[in-house]
Design goal:
Blueprint: H1 3-25, H2 29-57, H3 61-67, H4 72-85, H5 87-95, H6 98-108, H7 114-136, H8 141-144, H9 146-168, H10 174-200, H11 208-232, H12 236-262, H13 266-294
Helix pairs in contact: 1-2, 1-4, 2-7, 4-5, 6-7, 9-10, 9-11, 9-12, 9-13, 10-11, 11-12, 12-13
């Protein structure tokens, strides 16, 4: 039995089942209808690959259906992704492999008999345009607030990592550095939330209260995560390194999320964000050492 055909059939069957499950869990009627269309389309693709296997192997339909089993791990993990990250991210994540699939399909075309070749060309067209247009029609409230989440999270990581870096040359107390980061972060979170609230008042599509709270929560939540190492680790450089790794992890997670949602390049986005964070930390570390020298504040005596 052709393993390439079998693998494609399993992929399409898995996505047919996943989209069907997602549609049954979706409360938005318009989104549900789009997911049902995606499920039906994947089922059509699955039927094609099943026919290709029948034509290539000569095996009976029952034996082929028995051989084509969905990927169980995907059936378990995809609903979990939908719960955490939302339906838009999940569907776009499912489709990220389709670019490679299109190249694979095009390579297969010359080896297929004429009737199957025409049907595969239709599937390629589906993958290129139809599915993307369906996914582009999904509407989800959380996606409309991504900008405010990014504003709070990115600013918090850059600013609070900078605060902590500045204290490296001033004090050897991780407790002082941690508490200072929380206090500065709390005030900055209120400021950022207020600015987002005022900005959203000019926007008829978003709630000012939700926008302000989203920005405040993402900012202050990041502040707490960045500060936690300073309350559990007593060596300043170790606490700073751990906090910086937490910040980079937060940046990587959100950058990956945004890259999937908005079809951006993850590596470029993460490199830019990470460089800004580390560059700010370096500059504030230098400033902290200068100020510490001026006022005779050193890690050994403060």
């Amino acid at each position: 039995m052709n393993q390439a055909y079998l693998g494609r059939a399993r992929n399409e069957l898995t996505e047919y089942i996943v989209y069907g499950n997602l549609s049954r869990r979706e409360r938005n009627p318009a989104n549900r209808a789009l997911l049902e269309k995606l499920s039906a389309q994947e089922h059509k693709h699955y039927e094609f690959w099943k026919s290709a296997l029948e034509n290539e192997s000569g095996a009976d339909r029952g034996a082929i259906e028995q051989a084509i089993q969905p990927y169980r791990w995907s059936l378990i993990t995809i609903p979990f992704l939908r719960t955490i990250f939302g339906v838009t991210f999940t569907t776009k994540f499912l489709e990220t492999h389709e670019k490679n699939a299109i190249a694979t399909y095009q390579a297969m075309l010359p080896n297929l008999p004429e009737p199957l070749r025409k049907r595969l060309e239709e599937i390629i067209e589906d993958e290129k345009t139809h599915e993307q247009s369906l996914i582009g029609g999904l509407k989800e409230k959380r996606v409309s607030y991504i900008g405010f989440i990014a504003l709070g999270l990115a600013d918090a990581i850059v600013e609070i990592t900078g605060v902590h870096a500045g204290f490296l040359g001033v004090t050897g107390s991780t407790l002082i550095a941690g508490v200072s980061g929380v206090i500065v972060g709390f005030a900055a979170a209120i400021s950022m939330g207020s600015a987002a609230y005022i900005q959203a008042k000019q926007d008829t599509e978003r709630s000012p209260i939700a926008s302000g709270f989203t920005t405040w929560a993402s900012y202050f939540g990041s502040v707490i995560l960045l500060a936690l190492p300073y309350f559990f680790i007593r060596t300043m450089i170790t606490a700073f390194t751990t906090s910086t790794l937490v910040g980079l992890t937060l940046l990587a997670t959100f950058t990956f999320y945004g890259a999937i949602i908005f079809d951006r390049k993850f590596s470029r986005e993460f490199t830019e964000s990470g460089s800004l964070m580390l560059g700010t930390a370096l500059l504030t570390y230098i400033l902290g050492n200068i100020i510490g020298g001026i006022f005779h504040l050193t890690p050994s005596n403060f």
